[in-house]
């Protein structure tokens, strides 16, 4: 973490709330810097020197949380939806700690999502340079030929460029598993649409070596130390 940040950012990085919430709390006078109430979220804070307190409690090192969540379809991965549609936050236990998803899943996609309050970890995992593989189970609206599966392996041309090589395993005439190392917007759906087919069902069944296993849909569990280590060293 860089030592100089705005007060608003210090609060959100500490994992206690979003930037918007932090700004609101600062405005309400709930935040003190070196003992004095500060109502300006843009004030610069030197983390090595300044003491920041929220509701009278010094901001210590917030415990890092890493959860694995099995997202059902029909839920957005955003915090709040202006249209009032359901979000994953409707399903999460312990609402008083602020966690955010690592990457996104479409409204109609189900499957694994990692939730954390560790921004550095999240940035690393979503950075395409680190190539953390994600595996999706795809059901297409029509049979996909062997030649088309091979095209998916080699890379298909999308409007934002060719896709990277992928692993693909056939399951049925119109079903396959694909492992990709990028996370472009609606990538798997767009890859299948190249063949004039639609994706009828999309489930993220693995992130790196972590698979759904016994996790029930709509539920969370903590990532194990071993899983975390695996994600940090995945290539
Ligand atoms: N690819 C998609 O098309 N959608 C997702 O949600 C994830 C990957």
Characterization of the model:
The chain folds into three domains: 55 residues, Structural Genomics Hypothetical 15.5 Kd Protein In mrcA-pckA Intergenic Region, Chain A (Roll); 85 residues, Alpha-Beta Plaits (2-Layer Sandwich); 75 residues, Alpha-Beta Plaits (2-Layer Sandwich). It contains six helices and 17 strands. Strands 7, 8, 9, 10, 13, 14, 15, 16 and 17 form a nine-stranded mixed beta sheet that branches. It has a four-stranded antiparallel beta sheet with strand order 3-2-5-6, with no helix packed on it. Strand 2 and strand 3 form a beta hairpin. Helix 1 packs across helix 2. The longest helix has 9 residues. The protein is elongated and about 65 Å long. The structure holds uracil. Uracil binds next to helix 5.
C-alpha geometry: elongated
Q: What value does the average pLDDT take?
A: 92
Q: Which distinct ligands sit in these coordinates?
A: uracil
- CATH class call of the largest domain: Alpha Beta
So how many helices?
6
CATH topology of the largest domain: Alpha-Beta Plaits
CATH superfamily of the largest domain: Pseudouridine synthase I, catalytic domain, N-terminal subdomain
Can I get a quick summary?
It contains six helices and 17 strands. It starts with a strand and ends with a helix.
Notable characteristics:
single chain, 235 residues, alpha+beta, Structural Genomics Hypothetical 15.5 Kd Protein In mrcA-pckA Intergenic Region, Chain A, Alpha-Beta Plaits, 3 domains, nine-stranded mixed β-sheet, four-stranded antiparallel β-sheet, 6 helices, 21% helix, elongated, binds uracil
